[in-house]
From TrEMBL:
Tagged with keyword Nucleus: no
Protein name stated in the entry: Xanthine dehydrogenase family protein molybdopterin-binding subunit
SUPFAM superfamilies (alphabetical): CO dehydrogenase molybdoprotein N-domain-like, Molybdenum cofactor-binding domain
Matches recorded under SMART domains: Ald_Xan_dh_C (SM01008)
PANTHER family reported for this sequence: ALDEHYDE OXIDASE 1-RELATED, XANTHINE DEHYDROGENASE
Domain of life: Bacteria
UniProt xrefs under InterPro entries: Ald_Oxase/Xan_DH_a/b, Ald_Oxase/Xan_DH_a/b_sf, Ald_Oxase/xanthine_DH-like, AldOxase/xan_DH_MoCoBD1, AldOxase/xan_DH_MoCoBD2, AldOxase/xan_DH_Mopterin-bd_sf
Keywords assigned: Molybdenum, Oxidoreductase
Length: 703
């Protein structure tokens, strides 16, 4: 086993493959998800959604529905409890969709207009579907790809820098021997977690309890407390098992509706969403339109770099898919310009979806780099090597570590890149054209303050408590390994308890920051506990507990460019008779910090890469312009890559421990998808000689 900097002195568990600690419970069905748990007196809520894209709700005709079998109540704008969404949460201002039933305005199709609560889910659904809502309709606009005079440069979106600029772009473009000026589009895409959103709310002894499926129980608890003007200590949110999240599982309308109904009825109420409702209620990735201009010398050195990205948001809230962000990290140029603009439309507000901004941004940017390599007559990897920056291209800050070239080197070796004939459209096997492509990947490596508690139990075991979320990634197992090493005990002696807001503040599972942030807190608490135990003495029946809070330590980190990196490779075949693109193999090599559990890390990387394949070839939510509604809001019409679409995918990594992290972690949640679609699009170009700048690369676009 290799020892890397910044790691615990004694390493047993971290770095060795470990099956999920809850794996047996999951495959035997013992693991209960939010929709599975029984509660006495449980009532069931069903959301009714608007069917018009813009206007006012004139009337919710609830009387006939209230008389239907089993119906307990119908909540709507006329009778629902009041909420107060005038707050700034962990991730900024809340999406006003949480203010449902508070007013008569309809900003999109699929806005919650009523909640029908009944004794059974079937009764609630039947009544909700029978509910008549009258509207005063207004003209709407849901057409993102039309020209857009209303487009503006956003301000004040958390985590989004709208625009960066250095140097004289037009002058450098004019001085460039080679110029690429190309426009790219990506469609609206949806998270589609396997487990749809579900929440149960009840009042119990003066406390509000929510059993949920989310990415951060403390996050959801804090926002619920603010929304309902409750003492934060009186709200408890738990989320034991989560079947996928990808950015969609924060506070969404169903938890709010469940709390409203539980408050009105004084009994537990569960609201579960259908797959179709997810398409309206839980956020999505905005479509993007991007223009990239690159100017270079003949040897490939970049003089001019310009990435302009546009995304959509709703008319009630600003969310920016900041696709122009990654060029601020990847490539330098004498003149460098990036800008994210946004256009408000009569649609639901988009939200974070795996590798927000960077996933569509990398499709455009890494395609443009490939186009530039072609124009310069250079190998695409050599072009990237030529433009490897010394420090942050925009910030000027040093990189904490940057091993993107090591990824390309290792990837090229394993993929067999050296044998590649760069000429496009010349390899054919029967009716198939063959091609290979590559792309760079990067994603920010962040960390946020968290707290943890570690207890030495009298029986010689240890219990860790932290409000972490395991959204299916294996975080619970990773933290078990981290705790075991910090305690210098076998992982079998560590009991990991997560996803209960009563365990105290901790960052949500998002932005590839969860495991790193929680591992830091767990390590700190475990280290403190070992110091206490070293003093000797018996362990009392209640155990000995040490707590940590990483606020000061995280705050003391020096400012650096901190990122994970990677190199993606793909081989495709293109059927010249049907236009079908099939991916034969993919390889991703990542430099993404210390890998805690190779087994689940590999799954996460190839999951992201599979999603990149899906993005490249399949995924596309389509809105009917006339009604403003989706025409394919289900997994039959919205095609997510299935097993038959997914070829041999390999993911591996180079040694890249973060020098400033106690465990060496950087975070791996997002980076698997970054660049994957571009590698496939570049391979399609190599196969056919045709550049596809609009996703997905559907058969009708290929022919
Ligand atoms: Mo992620 S899109 O940060 O859940």
């Amino acid at each position: 086993m290799t020892t890397t900097t910044g790691t615990a002195a004694v390493t047993r568990a971290v770095g060795a493959a470990h099956t999920r600690v809850e794996g047996r419970d999951k495959v035997t069905g013992a693991a209960r998800y939010a929709g599975d748990l029984p509660f006495a007196e449980l009532a069931h809520g069903w959301l009714a959604l608007t069917t018009v894209a813009r206007g006012r709700v004139r009337a919710v005709e609830s009387a006939p529905v209230r008389a239907m079998p089993g119906v307990l109540t119908v909540l709507h704008q006329g009778n629902a409890p009041r909420v107060d969404a005038d707050y700034t949460g962990v991730l900024g201002r809340p999406d006003p969709i949480l203010e449902m039933f508070q007013h008569d305005r309809v900003p999109c199709v699929g806005w919650p207009v009523a909640l029908v609560v009944a004794e059974t889910p079937e009764q609630a659904r039947e009544a909700a579907e029978a509910l008549v809502v009258r509207y005063d309709e207004e003209p709407h606009d849901v057409d993102f790809f039309a020209g857009r005079p209303g487009t503006y440069t956003p301000e004040g979106s958390p985590g989004v820098q709208a625009e960066t600029e250095k140097g004289d772009l037009e002058a450098q473009l004019a001085a460039s021997a080679v110029v690429v000026d190309a426009s790219y589009t990506t469609p609206e895409e949806h998270h589609s977690p396997m487990e749809p959103h579900t929440a149960m709310a009840r009042w119990d002894g003066g406390r509000l309890e929510v059993v949920d499926s989310n990415q951060g129980s403390m996050w959801v608890a804090e926002e619920l407390a603010k929304l309902f003007s409750l003492d934060p200590a009186s709200v408890r949110v738990r989320s034991e098992h989560v079947g996928g999240a990808f950015g969609a599982k924060g506070l969404r309308p169903h938890q709010v509706a469940a709390v409203m109904a539980a408050t009105v009825l004084r009994r537990p109420v569960r609201v579960a969403l259908t797959r179709r409702q997810l398409f309206s209620l839980t956020g999505y990735r905005s479509p993007t339109a991007q223009r990239i201009r690159l100017g270079a010398d003949l040897d490939g050195r970049l003089r001019a770099f310009d990435h302009q990205a546009r995304s959509q948001t709703s008319t009630v809230h600003e969310f920016v898919e900041h696709s122009a962000a990654l060029g601020r990290v990847l490539y330098d140029a004498d003149a460098h310009h990036t800008v994210n603009r946004v256009v408000p439309l009569d649609v639901p507000t988009p939200t974070w979806m795996r590798a927000p901004g960077v996933a569509p941004g990398s499709f455009a940017l890494e395609s443009a780099l490939d186009e530039l390599a072609g124009k310069c007559g250079m190998d695409p990897i050599a072009l990237r090597t030529r433009n490897e920056p010394e420090s942050g291209p925009v910030s000027g800050l040093p990189f904490s570590s940057r091993n993107v070239l090591a990824c390309f080197e290792e990837g090229a070796r394993r993929f067999g890149w050296a044998e590649r004939d760069p000429r496009p459209g010349i390899r054919r096997q029967g009716r198939w054209l063959l091609g290979t492509g590559t792309a760079a990947a990067t994603y920010p490596s962040g960390v946020a303050p968290s707290t943890a508690a570690v207890t030495a139990e009298a029986d010689g075991t240890f219990t860790v408590r932290i409000t972490a979320a395991d959204v299916g990634t294996g975080a619970r197992t990773a933290l078990t390994l981290v705790a075991a090493d910090a305690l210098e005990v076998d992982p079998g002696r560590v009991r990991m308890r997560i996803a209960d807001s009563d365990f105290g503040p901790a960052v949500l599972a998002g932005g590839s920051m969860g495991t790193r942030s929680w591992a830091w807190a767990v390590t700190a608490a475990a280290t403190g506990l070992r110091e206490q135990l070293a003093l000797g003495g018996d362990i009392p029946p209640q155990g000995i507990t040490a707590r940590s809070d990483t606020t000061a330590a995280v705050g003391a980190l020096a400012k650096k460019e901190r990122h994970s990196f990677g190199a993606q490779f793909a081989e495709v075949t293109v059927d010249v008779t049907s236009g079908e693109v099939r991916v034969r193999r993919m390889l991703g090599i990542f430099a993404a910090g210390r890998i805690v559990n190779p087994l689940t890390a590999r799954s996460q990387f190839i999951g992201g890469m599979t999603w990149g394949l899906s993005m490249a070839l399949h995924e596309e939510a389509i809105r009917d312009q006339a009604s403003g509604a989706h025409v394919n809001a289900d997994l039959a019409g919205y095609h997510v890559a299935a097993h038959a679409d997914v070829p041999l995918i390999e993911a591996d990594w180079v040694d890249d421990p973060d020098p400033d992290d106690p465990v060496g972690i950087k975070g791996i949640g997002e980076i698997g998808i970054v660049g994957a679609a571009a590698a496939i699009a570049n391979a399609v170009w190599h196969a056919t000689g045709i550049r596809h700048r609009d996703l997905p690369i559907r058969p009708d676009r290929v022919l």
